[in-house]
Amino acid sequence: MDLREGDSPAYAVVLDEYAALMSRAERLLLAKLRAGREWTGDLKVSFYQHLGLSAIHLDMAYRQLQAKLKSVAELASDRAKDLASKIASKRTDIKRKEKALAKAITQRSKLPEELRILGERVTHFKRNLAAAKVSLHRRYLSALKHSLSELHAKTAASASIGLRIHALRAALHQHKRRLAILEHRKVEALRQAAQPALCFGSRKLFRAQFALKENGYSEAGDWRKDWASKRSAQMTLDGNSSKESGNQFARLRRRPDGRFNLELRLPKQLAQRATRSFVFAGSLVSCVDFANLSFNHGNSVIQRAIDAGRPVTVKFLRDEKSWKVYVSVDDRSELKAVDFSGGALGVDLNAGHVSVSVVDAAGNPVESFNIPCVTYGKTSDQARDTVRKVAAEVLAIAERFNVPVVSEKLDFSKKKTALKDSNDARYARMLSSFAYSSFDAALASACVRRGVGHRRVNPAYTSIIGRVKFARRYGLSVHEAASVTIARRAMGCSERLPRSNDGTVTVPTNGSVHVTLDLPVRNGSRHVWTEWNGLNKEYHKKALAAQGSSGRRPRPGRRPKTSTGRSGAPLHGLSAEVGCSRRLPLQSRDPGVGRVPGIVS
What are the angstrom distances between the C-alpha of 462 and each of 51, 368, 392? Predict the structure, then answer.
């Protein structure tokens, strides 16, 4: 809900002063705590009356301060872990460079002696050639030419190895500089995690005072206005279940038309800004009323929390346009039990789209969908809206088939550390964007709101399993096949490798070609994922070789277009259908995934 300054200037002034007062309380509390004081009743009495606030206001300021410090400490701890992995990777790079440099220096130390020997050999052959008989002239000339070619090659190698040593030393210097920077940042992150620090108003704006013109300020007074405004741009009034409407100072009351009225009770310091006053429990209460409020969504949830006597937390946040009001409640919706008796819906999140597949009770794919989900280049609000719409469409499909939703357990920290090893720029953007970290939360929230069962599974080897067992057999894309595997894993279906009479299996690549892989020997004593791990490594080697031999190197993650002949029939059989999305019921087109003698694939 927006409270625009042009529509209600009196309300905007009240919120400005209220937020400035609460922010000042937080800053004073932080200063007292950093000076060694402890949070006790004596500390509250020492200055809450001086600020014109109640002890309850000061308790709320203390809780908000502790929440901010905890957030800073957790972010610093995560940053320290990320830096530790980068430091380990950088040390590996340094060892590799040092080994290459030592080898190059050893080679260069041997070159003078080799050049001397080759020079003597050339001189020897020249003398023999001058004094040789006619019958031996051809023999000595050939030996001279061979020695001269070796001498020229060694001379060129001597020049190039010098340049290589220079480049290795320069690279090694830069790697060590980077390592020192990372180690320093890690130390700072650990210190921040142990003793978090806050800069109210942001460090960026604080540093802007030292370069006013470069940051768009004509004088220091303009910067001070922005600094004061930024430091008091938000305030939170915590909920209290023992009070009316779940909050002591910001009370929401439902109107007959479904909207809300907000009664904001002011501290004594702002009593002169009140539009209404009344006596309650022998004390004068000053307040400001905000009428006819409507929130974007969740009106029924807010009313349900108020009726149940649960806490209702109200947050006021000011941006460049207006003040905004946010309401947070504890909506205790019961999770629906997951029932796979009718099948399941698997969800696979990819760069630019979400693949969804419905499987029946036996684990056979029934229908597949591809939902666009492009968040690159969008603002956080636009990306959030896109992700929520995609989650709503996924839930609509699940409700139509009356099946639960199965998604991946998304580990963002591990995936982001693997960005260095990923050659797919779109995949790296997806991991770094807002969409990847918010899709799981949006999907889980939508499942709870709409009463659809939801389960998360480990996504290990889902891509290679789907590629081998389902992509070619049902004409699915790799991502659609992965979503089938995700749904089957939650249902407890078998993930054994396919059977084949000749011990091989034909697998589609991301392009329009196939590769043939040798199936590993089944070993019941090991987990089936061990076998899939070996098959996955073999696939990546052969797929890279196949793309190189075909002369076609499609961009990673890009789907190939279907190639057709004059009659309109696909040129590559089932391979032309890999990567094509469909919304049609699927049927098995192959008696098995493995190659069977006598049957042409």
Answer: 59, 16, 24
| Cα–Cα distance for residue pair 564/568, rounded to 1 Å | 5
Q: Indicate the pLDDT class of residue 108, thresholds 50, 70 and 90.
A: confident
Cα–Cα distance, 346 to 358 (Å, whole number): 6
105, amino acid identity: I
Instruction: Provide the pairing of β-strand 454-457 with 405-408.
Output: parallel
Q: Nearest Cα to 137, choosing from 146, 152, 122, 126?
A: 126
pLDDT at 599: 34
Nearest 5°: the CA angle 510, 512, 517 is: 70
In sequence order, the β-bridge partners of residue 322 are 4
Q: Nearest CA to 58 among 69, 68, 45?
A: 45
- 563: DSSP letter: P
User: Measuring CA to CA, which residue among 427, 586, 580, 460 is closest to residue 508?
Assistant: 580
Residue where the block lists tokens 């899939």? 532
- What is the distance between the alpha carbons of residues 470 and 365, in angstroms, rounded to a whole number? 9
- Taking alpha carbons only, the member of 396, 313, 318, 393 closest to residue 353 is 393
Decide the pairing of beta strands 283-293 and 260-265.
antiparallel
Residues 208, 212: Cα–Cα separation, whole Å: 6
Tokens of 68: 């901010």
Q: What is the rounded distance in angstroms from the CA atom of residue 73 to the CA atom of residue 79? A: 10
Q: Is 299 helix (H, G, I), strand (E, B) or coil?
A: helix
| Residue 63: pLDDT band with limits 50, 70, 90 | very high
CB 351 within 8 A of CB 426: yes
Residue type, 393: E
CA dist 520 and 532 (Å) reads 9
* CA-angle at 285, arms to 282 and 290, nearest 5°: 150
CA distance linking residue 574 with residue 587, whole number of Å:
13
Using CA atoms, how far apart are residues 321 and 29, in angstroms rounded to an integer? Answer: 30
Q: Which residue bears the tokens 């500089």?
A: 177
Q: Is the dihedral of CA 348, 560, 545, 467 positive or negative?
A: positive
DSSP state of 218: S
**Token pair recorded at residue 333:** 């919706």
Q: Distance (Å, rounded) from C-alpha 159 to C-alpha 166?
A: 11
> What's the CA gap between 48 and 52, in Å, rounded?
6
In tens, the pLDDT along 156-178 reads 888 888 888 999 999 999 999 99
CA distances from 420 to 86, 90, 91 (A): 10, 12, 15
Per residue in 368-406, pLDDT tens?
A: 999 998 887 788 788 888 899 999 999 999 999 999 999
Hey, is 37 helix, strand or coil? Answer: coil
Considering only CA atoms, give the Rg of the chain: 35
How far apart are alpha carbons 358 and 233 in whole angstroms?
47
**496 in Cβ contact with 528 (< 8 Å):** yes
Burial grade of 327 (CB within 10 A; 0-12, 13-18, 19 or more): buried
Burial, 99: exposed, middle or buried (Cβ in 10 Å; 0-12, 13-18, 19+)? exposed
Contact 345, 452 (CB under 8 A): no
